[in-house]
Amino acid sequence: MLRCYLTGRVGLEAGGALVVNERGFRGRQERAAFAYLVCERARPVTREELAGVLWPDDPPPAWSTALSAIISRLRSLLDVQELRALDVSISRGFGQYRLFLPAGTWVDVEAATHAIDAAEAAIRAARPRDAFSPAAVADNIARRPFLSGDEEGWIGRERERLARIRVRALDCLCNVWLDAGDGALAIEAASETVALDPYRESGHRLLMRAHALAGNPAGAVQAYHRLRDRLVSDLGTDPSPETEAVYLEILG
User: Fold this and answer.
1) Of 127, 146, 180, which residue sits at a domain end?
2) Contact present, 229 and 209 (Cβ < 8 Å)
């Protein structure tokens, strides 16, 4: 199986060996072009679209020449025996580029998406134990940096998507620990999700339940009041009825 990593250090692994690593890319634009072609490999990408990814604000006057040079270097980078045997290539023609990877290629950002969907499905089906493994996979991938050093355009949007996946994965893990009766691990997971998304009430409700499970109702009450103070001061609103119900349940 071919494995493609776009989080952490970008690279390609074939037969258990790393055949393309991040040091092989000459710059961030070359790395970003590779990542975009991986994510959009189901279709051809026009030169103009790829240029918009690499230069989202102000493309250089000679962007066409610069883009051709980037693609040529990527094709050279992928021209190794292990990848040729798998028919890995970048096609170009009619003003378009397309990356071809073999069927069944594992791509980490796609694996994170599939994993979080599976974890949430298990939680909805009241099978929290089945959610642990996919939630852990989603969390481990989503917490790694995506193309670090770049922030704008598509890269920033993909980074935000992975951040949302991580929050969802932490929610699932918290539910796993709540079901297992482990208040300490539930508090740890819920505290992370609250720190990542402080206005998301569902995370605060999980934190409140985790404190209650750990035998610390005072911690649950404090978590509620921190949420309420933040909502009132920043958004001018009160906690939702669902959050109020959890608070009253703990008080009761």
Assistant:
1) 180
2) no
